[in-house]
Write a structure and sequence with these properties.
The protein contains eight helices and ten strands. The strands form two sheets. Strands 1-4-6-5-7-8-9-10 form an eight-stranded mixed β-sheet, sandwiched between helices. Strands 2-3 form a two-stranded antiparallel sheet.
């Protein structure tokens, strides 16, 4: 009985320590990152969403306007404390690029919806996860978030200076967005796209063309599971076969890379430099 009580005590202690660690995680977000005061209603989805913002280091002391990158899974973009399994370190990477005079960029990171993530970031219904909400989610970015950002911050708001990027389900919905809203997004970072989640609609991504001058950056790790690698290879080859200019298309298959934030973080600089530096 005494041994059982000791085991129970140790289990409770481990749980308490784990909860305390979660509660007191130290933020790794740089001073250039803020959480916007406004909580944005999501039309048609009956929920709200938090948005995080990165402004370049020189923003406060300049009058310049900057290109903008919209990203998904905002909890994982800037801060280890809020991330699910690691962060992209976008703020640190962009601070380094700005210091080297290579790129200055505003990043708008939209938090994911937790249990709603699999439907919000999917343009196709799924038998396990439910009815697609991807179209409404992108319309929320286009109709609510982007107008707010363009009104309140010094952006270059035109399509040639506006990109969208995400990984996994975020890669899937980024590809969808650049095709469906060619007047808004001129660049897409399509990282480890979960084409499997679109079911038969993966053929939609093969057959729907993006605007000819849109820049498409595909990335996949060689060690990502099941159909991930063949799916992105298939879609990429179809994009080229349908006439998208090779000079406006990149595909990087990274050796020994898995499906995680560390891999996406390692690829981020190369992707944004290709997407946002004039071709």
């Amino acid at each position: 009985m005494r041994q059982f009580s000791l085991i129970c005590f140790l289990v409770l202690l481990l749980v308490a320590c784990s909860e305390a660690e979660q509660q007191y995680k130290v933020s790794t977000a740089s001073t250039e990152v803020t959480v916007l005061d406004s909580v944005f209603p999501m039309p048609g989805l009956n929920r709200t969403r938090q948005v995080r913002l990165y402004l370049p280091p020189g923003y406060q002391t300049s009058e310049k306007r900057y290109p903008v990158l919209y990203m998904h899974d905002g909890q994982n973009v800037f801060d280890q404390a809020t991330s699910f399994a690691g962060e992209w370190g976008v703020d640190e990477s962009l601070n380094e690029l700005a210091a080297a005079n290579q790129l200055e960029l505003i990043v708008v990171a939209i938090d994911n919806g937790g249990e709603k993530r699999m439907t919000e970031l999917n343009p196709a219904d799924h038998p396990q996860y439910g009815q697609a909400e991807g179209k409404a989610y992108i319309e929320f970015i286009v109709g609510s978030v982007k107008p707010y950002i363009d009104q309140h911050f010094r952006t270059l708001a035109d399509v040639n200076h506006t990109g969208i990027m995400g990984s996994s389900m975020g890669g899937l919905i980024s590809h969808y967005a650049v095709v469906q809203f060619p007047e808004v997004f001129g660049k897409a970072g399509i990282f480890s796209p979960s084409y499997w989640a679109s079911g038969a609609k993966v053929s939609w991504f093969e057959n729907q063309r993006a605007a000819t001058d849109a820049l498409l950056y595909f990335y996949m790790g060689e060690e990502e599971g099941e159909s991930m690698v063949p799916d992105v290879q298939r879609v990429y080859q179809s994009v080229l076969a349908k006439g998208h200019p090779a000079k406006h298309t990149q595909f990087h298959l990274k050796a020994n890379a898995d499906h995680n934030e560390a891999a996406w973080r390692a690829e981020f600089k190369a992707a944004v430099l290709w997407l946002f530096n004039d071709k």
